[in-house]
Amino acid sequence: MNDNELLAELLLPDIDKTPDYYENLYKDRNIPEGARVTRVAPSPTGYLHLGTLFTSLVNRITATSTNGIFFTRIEDTDKKREVEGGIENIIDGLNRFGINADEGFVKGKTEKGEYGPYQQSHRGEIYQTYVKDLIKKGLAYPCFCTAEELENVRNIQEANKIRTGYHGEYAKHRNITYSEAKALVEEGKPFVVRLKSQGNEENRIVFEDMIKGKIEMPQNDEDFVLLKSDGIPTYHFAHAIDDHLMHTTHVMRGDEWISSVPKHIELFKLLGFKVPKYAHISPIMKLDNGAKRKISKRKDPEAAVHFFIEEGYEPICVIEYLMTIASSDFEDWRRANPDADYRTYKFNLKKMSVSGALFDQNKLNDISKIIVSKMKSDEVYDKITAWAKEFDSEYYEILTENPDFSKAMFAIDRDNANKPRKDIAKWSEVKEYYSYMFEKMYEPSKEYPEKISKEDAVLFLSEYSKIYDCSDDRQAWFDKIKDIAPTLGFAADTKEYKANPESFKGSAGDLSTLLRIAVTGRSNTPDLCSIMQVLGKEKSLMRIKAAINNLKEN
Fold this sequence. Notes:
alpha/beta, 23 helices, 13 strands, 10% strand
């Protein structure tokens, strides 16, 4: 054996496989021509972030649009930051929003697929096999520098205004001999394994980013770490090995990784791998005192996907909104295909924004209102009770006390409406929106239309109570209001009132507003005739009687 081969055996004596073993184990995928294999590779360090959800959506829709494969991989090489339940939080969170993986982690900690394990901490032997091969080829070496030595080098570089990093003359162990390394290993000195970069910062690399276009950067010349002292790989090295063996065709990730592309391209080439296509996704931004900034985990509650769950946004509403951020022509497609599944949209990375899009909660609400307005009452009931059971137990008890009543309430201006109301954006709004329907939450109003005198208000409500029929349809219901109007000096027809306002105290519409306030405590609600039918005649008349008494007392 030559010195490089001896060095490889010295550093990694337990590794007895070669790269060829894994190349044969993980065969090329049998996929259609043009199909893209994409992945998302989160770290289990906490909750599911909005940025991770967005990146996952882009990867998922790209694979779907090309009849490809989308998989999830867990990058857990930084054990210090890992939190218990982190994997489940992320994978189950993605599933909740309809971002289902074809392979990898498909549910909780359940893995599926022929290219696993899909968790980096379980792939140690694979990484070490490829590192050992690089050492044999003289393309990697051990570095025994202490943290203090590396810090001292950095201080010298900064003092001399030299680019910081382990490169050139500052790469202390770049040319270490087998004998020197053997002596240090036998002394028990800890070491990392570094790449022996073949790059030159004076030279340039050019690559085509599928979102940002042509990018030109200096070659990498840094001897960066491949294996840490505990044998765990760095992100850079794990990315190259995993995406090669899993046959990822398109690496789509946050644009904070653009600066690392020279390292990754060099790694792929030195390892003899085909370089994947790269697409770097701009972050979702937020306005802060007039300036754009990235959505922050520390500052912004909406940075956590759980925020949308807790607020009661339907997952599909959030996804539809994110699709408008992901593709500049998605909204045009949606208008032309109002009822189509978003997954049938032919997604194109070229339509993505080069700069970060602003998070717009008002737009999210508008999209959500449209989607919720199309839901039938039974579906609304099922979804709102499921949400309330998790986040508002008191309201859950109220809604489920009489399911038929609650469903009838949700059916108002919904099930048989040509143009259903677009009032509800999230389930947390429902409690307040429909509070007047439940006696436990109903609050009568003491404020009535100013243009109607108390005397006229009492007379109208009293007369209407005598003739109200719960079986009246909307027209018959309103005709009775119009019949009473002239007897009190009000116009039966709104057009008549507008044409000659000085001749009337108001119109039948004003009287219907008075009735609405008496029954619901509000001046703006869904169809009042339907509300009174759901409440029932006894309860409706009881509320009208209470309003009459209130008017008389005040």
